[in-house]
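Fold it.
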Amino acid sequence: MNQSLSSLAAARRNHKTKHNQLPWGIVVLAAIIGIAFFLFANVPQAAIMWAFGIIIGFTLQRSRFCFTASMRDPVLTGSTSLTKAVLLAIGVASIGFAYIQHSAAVSGLPIPGNISPVGPNTAIGAAMFGIGMVIAGGCASGTLMRVGEGFLIQIITLIFFIIGSLWGAHDFGWWTANIIPKTKIFLPTLIGWIPALVIQFGFLIGLYVLANKYGKRSDKSHDLQ
């Protein structure tokens, strides 16, 4: 009897009271709409950016979309669902960017977008960022998403993310003068738009097929175990 009572007391202590978050949700929604109307009345472009930011943030949170997980999960768990999602996202973005850039080129306007040289700086930065985001447990988008969810480690990551960005901006002149190549390579200008798109989507499709096969093989090995 005493053991049953003590077990019941322990269960009550461990039971987490569920709080109704609906009032907080209504307050946040009202604040989002209020800020949107304020921005639209003063800077309409900022209101559009605010709306897109909210939509993208909500989509990231509900889908658990994270670039870190897309690179980490195939190694740790064998899952490639996020890897394939990232490849699809890059493909969709490539179509949009190609349309915008091609339209500018046909109109004789400067091609928009951050077209940067590829060199040792790319490899060094990719390695440093890849190691950092795996240790931190999130990329830029994943970190911002989890900060909104209240994860303490991601708040610390965001602080050092800002510090690292400021440090990089401070030293960017040295990197430009000593490491970053001066020649920029833009494939559509070099080989033409159609061949460049064929290479781009051929590469993405090839990676998607490999990710799909790897994921299926991993699922079969887990089933056998």
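The two ends are 42 Å apart (CA to CA).
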